[in-house]
C-alpha cells in the first residue's frame, strides 16, 4: 500500500494543523535563539549550519515530542488500497460498545470532519450532596451518560453517584453531509452551521438493585465551537430534571468541544446566534400555525356530536422535558437492520422493556402522564404503555405494515394505548405492546337480528378515541366509541375525522423543528447469552443448595436432567416470539426416558425480565409449586435447574428458569 497522490495535500494539512496546535514555531524560535547565543559566546568562529540547528532541536526533545504526538498508528486509513480508493467508506451509522472495559482505537479518516466531545466531570448534583464516598469494591448507585448524534450512539462507563460525579469520557462524533454522494466529503463551516441536529444527552441513575431512573434528558447545540479560532471550546451544560421536576436543575456537566481538523475560517458568533434564532423563530411559527389549525379542527369535531367532548382524542403530549409535542411526532418509521427478524419478534422485544408509570412526588387522583423520547426510553429500559406503543408502531411501520397507535380505554375505564395494523384484505389486528399478544378484531353488528350469533371480543380494550402514526391523525366520530362496535375504515369520513397530512408534516416530519429530538438507531446486544446463562445458573444452584441446607436437606444434582430442560426453555421463548408452540413432544419423550420407572418428575418454568439471581429466586419461592420442588423430600431425590438468557437489541433480555426434581414414589 502507498499514499495516493490526491491524499498527500490532506496529510500535509493535518500535519500543519497539528504543528500549529502545539505552537511549534515559537518552540523552534526559542531553540534557535538559544543556539545563536551559545555560538556568539563561544570562542570558535565557524558559522552555524543546518545540521547544528537540527542537533539542537533533537537535544531539546522537540522532534521526538512532535513524532510521538502525531500518532501515526491511528491513521492507517490514510494508506488505502486501490479498491478502498474507488469505494470511499460510508458514514458511521451507529456505535456498539462491545467491550465495557477496554477502550477501542478508531481510525481517523482525513476526508471527514469530527467533533470530539469530552466530558470533564459534573458538579452541583445536590441530591447526592450527603452521599458518602464508596469504599473500594462496594456496590453503590451509579451514573451513566448516554449520547446520540446523527445515528451514532455512545455511552460512558458507570461512575458512583456523587455531588461531583467523576464522569470523564471522550466521544468522537463524525459530522457528515446529508446529500447523496456527499457523505465521504469533509463538511465545511457553512455546511456545519446548517446542521441543526443536536447532541442528545441522557443521564441515567442505576441503584444497587439494578433499577434505573431517568435523571436528565438534554439537547445540546454544539455549533458554538464553529466560532472558536482554536477549534476548541469549553462550556458548562446545565442538566434539568425530568417530568414534574423539569424546571429544577439536576446538575451541571462540564463539556469540551473540539473540531478535528479545525476550520481554516471560523464563523462569527453573531452569525451562529442569528442562525439559531432564525431556526427557533421558524419552529415557533410552525407550532403556532399548527396550534391554530388544531383548535379549528377540534371545534369542527365537537360540532359533529356533543358527546365527542368526552372521547379520548389526544392531539398533544408532554415529553420528559415538559415540552408539548403533537403525538404524531413520537412515531417514526424505524428499521432495525438485522437486529430483529420480523414484526412478531419486534413485538417480543418491545414487551421485554419493563412497564413503569412516570414517577411523581406526592399522591393524588388521576394519572401523571409523560411520554418519553425514544432515546430516554431505550436508555432507561422501561416506560409506560404510551412509550411501548409508539416504539412498536415505529418498528411495525419499518417492517412495511400499515400500523397506528390507538388511544382509548381498557377494562374499568383505565386510559390505555395499543397498536393496530390493517391488512390489505381489510382485516384488523390489535397488538398489545406490553405483552406482545395479538388479537384479531371482529366488529359486532348492532343492527343484526337478535338470533344472529355475534363474535365475542377476545381483546381487553373497551373504547378507542383516536388513532395516529407518523403521517396521520384520525378521531373516531362513530356513534359509539366502543371497540367491539368500531369499523376501522379510515377512508370513510363519516366514521373517522382526519387531520390534514400537510399540517402534520409541517411539525412532525424529521428536521421540521429543532425541538424534535432525532430518532436513534437500535444497538445490537453486547452480552454473551451462553456466559450469562451459565453465570445465572451457577448462582441459582448455590441459592438452592443454601436454602435446602437451612432446611437440613441434602442436595444432589442431576446434570443430565438439567441439560434436557434446555429444549423446553427454547420452545417457550420461540412461542412468545411467534405464537407457535413446537418441540413439546420431543421434550416429553426425553424426560420419560430420563426418569426411571417408579419415579415422579416435577417441573416449574418461570420467566423474568432481569438477571438478578437473588430477586429471581425470591420471586420463584412465592409460588407453592416451585417451593414444593425446591424443598422436595423423599427417596432418591435428584434436583435440576436450567437457565436460558435470550438477548435482544439494547441488551434487553428474556430470562427463562426451570426448576425440576425427580424422586422415587413411596406409597
TrEMBL record:
**Localization:** Cytoplasm, Cytoskeleton, Microtubule organizing center, Centrosome, Centriole
- Does the keyword field hold Nucleotidyltransferase? no
Provide the alphabetized UniProt keywords.
Answer: Cytoplasm, Cytoskeleton
Q: Which InterPro entries match?
A: CEP76, CEP76-C2, CEP76_C, CEP76_N, CEPT76/DRC7_peptidase-like_dom, Papain-like_cys_pep_sf
Domain CEP76 N-terminal, chain residue ranges per copy: 10-70
Q: Does the keyword Cytoplasm apply?
A: yes
Q: Name one Pfam family in it.
A: CEPT76_peptidase
Ranges of residues in domain Centrosomal protein of 76 kDa C-terminal = 527-664
CEP76/DRC7 peptidase-like domain mapped to chain residues: 369-499
Q: Would you name any one GO CC term?
A: centriole
UniProt-listed GO biological process terms: regulation of centriole replication
Residue ranges annotated for the CEP76 C2 domain, each copy included? 107-263
Q: Which family does it belong to?
A: Belongs to the CEP76 family.
Q: What does this protein do?
A: Centrosomal protein involved in regulation of centriole duplication. Required to limit centriole duplication to once per cell cycle by preventing centriole reduplication.
Name this polypeptide is given? Centrosomal protein of 76 kDa
- Please tell me the species this chain comes from: Neogobius melanostomus (round goby)
Q: Upper lineage ranks?
A: Eukaryota, Metazoa, Chordata, Craniata, Vertebrata
Amino acid at each position: 500500500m502507498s499514499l495516493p497522490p490526491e491524499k498527500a495535500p490532506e496529510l500535509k494539512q493535518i500535519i500543519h494543523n497539528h504543528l500549529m496546535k502545539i505552537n511549534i514555531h515559537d518552540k523552534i524560535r526559542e531553540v534557535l535563539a538559544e543556539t545563536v547565543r551559545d555560538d556568539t559566546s563561544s570562542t570558535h568562529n565557524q558559522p552555524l549550519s543546518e545540521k547544528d540547528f537540527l542537533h539542537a532541536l533533537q537535544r531539546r526533545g522537540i522532534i521526538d515530542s512532535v513524532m510521538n504526538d502525531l500518532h501515526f498508528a491511528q491513521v492507517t486509513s490514510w494508506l488505502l488500497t486501490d479498491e478502498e480508493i474507488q469505494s470511499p467508506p460510508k458514514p458511521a451509522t451507529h456505535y456498539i460498545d462491545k467491550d465495557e472495559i477496554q477502550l477501542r482505537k478508531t481510525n481517523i479518516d482525513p476526508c471527514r470532519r469530527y467533533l470530539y466531545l469530552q466530558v470533564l466531570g459534573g458538579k452541583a448534583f445536590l441530591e447526592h450532596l450527603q452521599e458518602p464516598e464508596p469504599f473500594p469494591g462496594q456496590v453503590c448507585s451509579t451514573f451513566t451518560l448516554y449520547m446520540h448524534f446523527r445515528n451514532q450512539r455512545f455511552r460512558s462507563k458507570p461512575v458512583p453517584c456523587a455531588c461531583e460525579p467523576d464522569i470523564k469520557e471522550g466521544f468522537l462524533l463524525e459530522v457528515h453531509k446529508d446529500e447523496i454522494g456527499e457523505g465521504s466529503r469533509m463538511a465545511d463551516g457553512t455546511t456545519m452551521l446548517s446542521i441543526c441536529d443536536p447532541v442528545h444527552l441522557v443521564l441515567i441513575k442505576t441503584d444497587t438493585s439494578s433499577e434505573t431512573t431517568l435523571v436528565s434528558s438534554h439537547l445540546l447545540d454544539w455549533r458554538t465551537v464553529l466560532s472558536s479560532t482554536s477549534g476548541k471550546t469549553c462550556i458548562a451544560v446545565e442538566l434539568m430534571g425530568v417530568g414534574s421536576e423539569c424546571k429544577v436543575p439536576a446538575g451541571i456537566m462540564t463539556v469540551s468541544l473540539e473540531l478535528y481538523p479545525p476550520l481554516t475560517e471560523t464563523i462569527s458568533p453573531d452569525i451562529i446566534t442569528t442562525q439559531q434564532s432564525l431556526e427557533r423563530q421558524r419552529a415557533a411559527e410552525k407550532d403556532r400555525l399548527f396550534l391554530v389549525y388544531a383548535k379549528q379542527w377540534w371545534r369542527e369535531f365537537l360540532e359533529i356530536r356533543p358527546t365527542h367532548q368526552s372521547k379520548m382524542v389526544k392531539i398533544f403530549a408532554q415529553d420528559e422535558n415538559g415540552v408539548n409535542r403533537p403525538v404524531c411526532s413520537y412515531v417514526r418509521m424505524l428499521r432495525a437492520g438485522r437486529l430483529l427478524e420480523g414484526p412478531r419478534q419486534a413485538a417480543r422485544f418491545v414487551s421485554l422493556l419493563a412497564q413503569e408509570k412516570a414517577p411523581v412526588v406526592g399522591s393524588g387522583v388521576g394519572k401523571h402522564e409523560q411520554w418519553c423520547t425514544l432515546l430516554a426510553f431505550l436508555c432507561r429500559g422501561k416506560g409506560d404503555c404510551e412509550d411501548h406503543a409508539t416504539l412498536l408502531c415505529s418498528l411495525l411501520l419499518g417492517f412495511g405494515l400499515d400500523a397506528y397507535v390507538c388511544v382509548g380505554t381498557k377494562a374499568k375505564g383505565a386510559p390505555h394505548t395499543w397498536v393496530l395494523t390493517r391488512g390489505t384484505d381489510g382485516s384488523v389486528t390489535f397488538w398489545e405492546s406490553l405483552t406482545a399478544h395479538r388479537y384479531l378484531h371482529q366488529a359486532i353488528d348492532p343492527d343484526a337480528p337478535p338470533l344472529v350469533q355475534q363474535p365475542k371480543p377476545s381483546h381487553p380494550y373497551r373504547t378507542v378515541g383516536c388513532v395516529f402514526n407518523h403521517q396521520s391523525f384520525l378521531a373516531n366520530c362513530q356513534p359509539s366509541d366502543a371497540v367491539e362496535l368500531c369499523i376501522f375504515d379510515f377512508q370513510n369520513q363519516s366514521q373517522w375525522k382526519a387531520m390534514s397530512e400537510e399540517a402534520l408534516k409541517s411539525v412532525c416530519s424529521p428536521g421540521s423543528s429543532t425541538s424534535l429530538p432525532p430518532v436513534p438507531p437500535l444497538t445490537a446486544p453486547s452480552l454473551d447469552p451462553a456466559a450469562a446463562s451459565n453465570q445465572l445458573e451457577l448462582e441459582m444452584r448455590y441459592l438452592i443448595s443454601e436454602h435446602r441446607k437451612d432446611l437440613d436437606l441434602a442436595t444432589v444434582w442431576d446434570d443430565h436432567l438439567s441439560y434436557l430442560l434446555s429444549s423446553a426453555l427454547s420452545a417457550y421463548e420461540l412461542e412468545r416470539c411467534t405464537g407457535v408452540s413446537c418441540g413439546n413432544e420431543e421434550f416429553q419423550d426425553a424426560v420419560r426416558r430420563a426418569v426411571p420407572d417408579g419415579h415422579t418428575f416435577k417441573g416449574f418454568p418461570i420467566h423474568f425480565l432481569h438477571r438478578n439471581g437473588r430477586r429471581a429466586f425470591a420471586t420463584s419461592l412465592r409460588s407453592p409449586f416451585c417451593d414444593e420442588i425446591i424443598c422436595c423430600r423423599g427417596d432418591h431425590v435428584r434436583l435440576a435447574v436450567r437457565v436460558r438468557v435470550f438477548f435482544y437489541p439494547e441488551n434487553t433480555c428474556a430470562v427463562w428458569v426451570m426448576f425440576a426434581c425427580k424422586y422415587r414414589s413411596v406409597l
